[in-house]
Design goal:
Elements (H helix, E strand, L loop, with lengths): L2 H22 L9 H6 L8 H9 L3 H7 L2 H22 L3 H5 L2 H21 L1
Helix pairs in contact: 1-5, 3-4, 3-5
């Protein structure tokens, strides 16, 4: 397996661990939305940071109301960390593990994500 895959896997694992540590310590920064400042329209991810903070605070219902994809983002991060660890152990690439299914899941998730944004913007 090429060195770049090791770099990607380790970055995902360490970055994910740091993100969860920041969330558990209540240290996720509140970043301004540049898209909103420039256009006056909420971007597709507006509310995800607050949603994730609510998850770490144990407020699942409020998190879903803030942005339904906050929990999806956290679940995806956990899965990416698990598959990265698996990839390191098995010395395999994610493409070998999932094939075209990974691309299909990503496309479907993106379509749902954009649909949620459009509905929330009405």
């Amino acid at each position: 397996m090429p060195l770049r895959y090791y770099t990607i896997y380790i970055t995902v694992i360490v970055g994910g661990m740091l993100f969860f540590a920041a969330g558990l310590l209540g240290r996720i920064p509140d970043l301004p939305c540049l898209f909103n400042r420039m256009t006056g329209i909420n971007c597709p991810s507006c509310g995800i940071t607050r949603s994730i903070r609510l998850v770490f605070g144990g407020n699942i219902k409020d998190s879903l109301n803030m942005h339904p994809f906050g929990i999806v983002f956290l679940a995806a991060l956990v899965l990416m960390m698990v598959f990265s660890i698996y990839g390191l152990i098995k010395r395999s690439r994610l493409e070998q593990l999932f094939g075209k299914r990974l691309t299909t899941v990503a496309i479907v998730t993106f379509i749902i994500y954009m649909t949620v944004w459009a509905v929330r913007s009405l």
